[in-house]
Write a structure and sequence with these properties.
17 helices, Arc Repressor Mutant, subunit A, 10 strands, 6-stranded parallel sheet, alpha/beta, Rossmann fold, 49% helix, two-stranded parallel ribbon, globular, single chain
Length: 387
Amino acid sequence: MSASSETILEGLDDAQMSAVTALDGPVRIIAGAGAGKTRTVTRRIAYACARGDWDARKVLAVTFSVKAAAEMRARLQTLGVGDDVTAATFHSAALQQLRRVWDDIFETPLPHVTSDQRENVERAIRRVTNAADIDAQQVRDVRAEINWTKVSLVAPDDYPRVCSATRRQPPAELDPQRFADIITAYEGEKTVRGQIDFDDILLLVCHVMDDYEELAASIRSSIGWLTVDEYQDVSPLQHRLMTLWLGNNRNVCVVGDPAQTIYSFAGASSYDLLHFADEFRPLTADVTLNTDYRSTPQVVRYANRVLAAAPEREQYLVLRSARSGGPRVGHTCYDTDEEEARGIAARIARLVAGGVDPGACAVLTRINAQQPAICAALRAEGLRYRV
């Protein structure tokens, strides 16, 4: 073993070490909040490359945000493999593949990827409903539902049947058949303008992998080892693409936490994470990271109490804190948003008066609409803030 690979293993706890040194075959890592998930994943990739077991040029690590991908690349860079490993979002990795094979299939240029669907959605609504007035909320709701059908692999013709079977109600007071017509009209609007949306990127690569054997083999040959971050938020479309990328390749590692699923509104589900062992059996390693290095014991105990009351509590990790201690977690209820805002601002003002740095105070809100009341209360207390 080279000195560099030994250095990569330094500072890992026992569970992290088990995950990092399991290099072949299917691996699942259930990682709680603050448990060193990114540290473990990047060390695993760097360790395998440093040993020579993996070819860094054939390593693909996909995650869900540009920021997370950049963080992964930065960490891999410090570990000496950042230039060769591909760390990207699902959409970025798929778009690179699509650009590589497009000219082999089509005579026309690759359509423009539009990041703003609103105009096409509004045009589709007008075409189907002949509505004169369409508000922004209606456009947002219809756009979200169109995106849900794509990531859930629901074709327009199947949408009414799916609504009937699942009692799903289309947005904007539309009946299922009319909404299916809007989906078709939306696709037509994009085609006329030479556009595709982000989900089309994944759908098109799935189409290539399904229908063009030689090109599919070329894409698969470029992926020797696949790591999927935030696997609890994988949609059916992303899962489909992942399995097509793999083919018969079993060198896949998935990382996630069922308690951190945040994209269920957009079609994501922790199902694939929880059933990974059934789909890819037998696993080389099934590792649980439940030591929270980020939060105090008081915060961790409170989090465990909240999760213990959840309907899916048997799916969730019981975390333990690696930190020494901290203040207790307070819980205060207010009758109105305004009273809550004043109470929060007054508490922060008392902390600041006692010598606490205002920059060490944070207020988290569930939605942006709650923030103006908080900001007004902070101004009234003479406290400067940054949203």
